[in-house]
Design a protein that fits this description.
The protein has 14 helices and eight strands. It is an alpha/beta fold and 314 residues long.
Amino acid sequence: MIETNKMENLISIGELARLTGITTHTLRVWEKRYGTPCSQRLPSGHRRYPKEDVPRLRAIAKALESGYRASKVVSGTLEELHGLMGLKPLMDTKLNPKGENPNSSNELLIERWIKAIHGFDDDSLIQSFYDQWNKNGPLNFIIDYMVPLIERVGNGWESGELTISQEHFATECITSFLTSKWRQLNIRKEGWTIMMATLPGETQCLGLLMAAVIASLSGGKIIYLGPDTPLKDIIETAKNQKPEVLCFSVSCILNPLDTEEKISKISSELKNKAKIVCGGKGTPENFPGVNKIEDFKLFNKWLKNFEEKLEARV
């Protein structure tokens, strides 16, 4: 029986939902699946929840908005969630002590990054990547910062503003950062798998790395083969590892007919046992058996729907 002096620290599921913005249905599902939030029974049989769990659940809601999967964050402590998302500054009433406008355009920050690239200043560039990752979460970091930065670097190289050395420097910094992040999110995963590669002749990997970050937010374990993977190795690895999803990043440097031929070969050899997902400007239009996904937000949504269908089969 619950002690009377503890009753004032317990609230109903409806009140918990109101305070956290998480629906009562979702809270019940989490309690059943993950054992949290943990309810207590009143003598009447009604459930009550500890009020002290409200900040942690609010942090979970913020993490979900930023692209994290429930399976990764629901059981986390408040401290772990703060470390994952960098939420502690968001809860500080002295946020933005310098008076900066949090809604100002991202273009100014990206131009600061371009300035760092001009000066080969990897320390400040990568530290700023970490800051924005912690502040915005993986999904928004990719969509709002990495995509426009990579486009800006490409345009700078084409116009002659950036030298080949500076473009290579920027690519290396981005590659190093994204690789460390998706691998960190990919550890200790079990269950279904997603294999990621580029087709033979495709040496650009930044699109694939950004896709790997988004994929690492799902429950799937990533098998990352990287750029310019020989066709026979893609097929052999897929046959041996049996991934549920094959993901390819396709740029416009590849011949469209060659791309279609290679994807057809992969699909035929695997007998359509894996879903094929392609993104990038070189992805064939209306190609049978290929899920063409236009952007990373849609890719995140597609993975979420795919995972829900997998869970429904269990």
